[in-house]
Write a structure and sequence with these properties.
Blueprint: E1 5-9, E2 13-19, E3 33-40, H1 42-53, E4 57-61, E5 63-65, H2 68-79, E6 82-83, E7 88-90, E8 96-102, E9 108-113, H3 122-127, H4 129-133, E10 137-140, H5 146-159, E11 163-165, H6 175-179, E12 183-184, H7 188-195, H8 203-214, E13 220-224, E14 230-234, E15 237-241, H9 254-267, H10 272-287, H11 299-308
Parallel strand pairs: 1-4, 1-10, 2-8, 4-6, 5-7, 10-11, 11-12, 12-13
Antiparallel strand pairs: 2-3, 8-9, 13-14, 14-15
Helix pairs in contact: 1-9, 7-8, 9-10, 10-11
Amino acid sequence: MKRGKITVIGSINMDLVVKVDVHPKAGELVTGKGLEYIPGGKGANQSIAAALSADAEVALIGCVGEDAHGTALLENLRAKHVNIDKVVVDAKAPTGLAQISVDRHGQNMIIYNSGANFRLLPEHIEMEERKIAESDMVITQLEIPLATVERIAQICNKHGVPLLLNPCPAMMLSDELLRRVSFLVPNEFEGAALCGINPPENIEDAIRITELLETKTPGSVLMTIGASGVLIVTEHGIKHMPAYKVDAVDATAAGDTFIGAFAGRYVNGASLEEAAQFATAAAAITVSRLGAQVSIPTRVEVEQFLREHPQD
């Protein structure tokens, strides 16, 4: 299998993670269990998943602050075989920060402060046009300025480079941007937001959202639906790929692991469905562990998991 080149353009954060029995309601105080500083950020998470889980050649374009968190995050990315030569260190803003609480069922609530991530501007992307043009795929999200995402899409379109967009955090996007997307990978809440409707209450609702998303982009649509798996638009219609059953510990990086593992496997030569199956297994392993990047499995671990958990 070949080793494809992926450029990820996105957020780099430090995650402050606290375990709770239940998430607090408005005005309620609950007691947390421990505090961990764990490397995160959707761009960084997806980079590591593509490199670690799928063995792709990965470069990350992003922005961190000139502070201790930024230094630690870059050291961690380098150790996980992600090229960070194009990451900007900005002295005018702190490194992005996410405050995450994880309940006893492994479900999370996240408060995000973008910090230096929102100083990644279109001109930074224009400086890296050659890097983008040489990529087999570009991945981006919405934790950086929307104007930057739009410029990424324009440059990818100009050079015929496939663009995978993870539309998170959820928001409405222009038809022009969506027409430039090759792979649209939202979760069910993000998918509903793109369609301007309520989140799905059942699998039938989720399928309807996927059908609506298919009309918005010429690219492939893969909508993750949590513990229910993923819906994939194929040439034969919409396919439901169930999630693997595992004991959930922390769902924080499950979607990012799916995206990175899918992209890496795809550029390395797998078909759409093969890459999605591989990514579903990688995400299942991630859910069974605490933390974001620290929970992302290696390619060997994913391949072993697939052997031990065959699906029809």
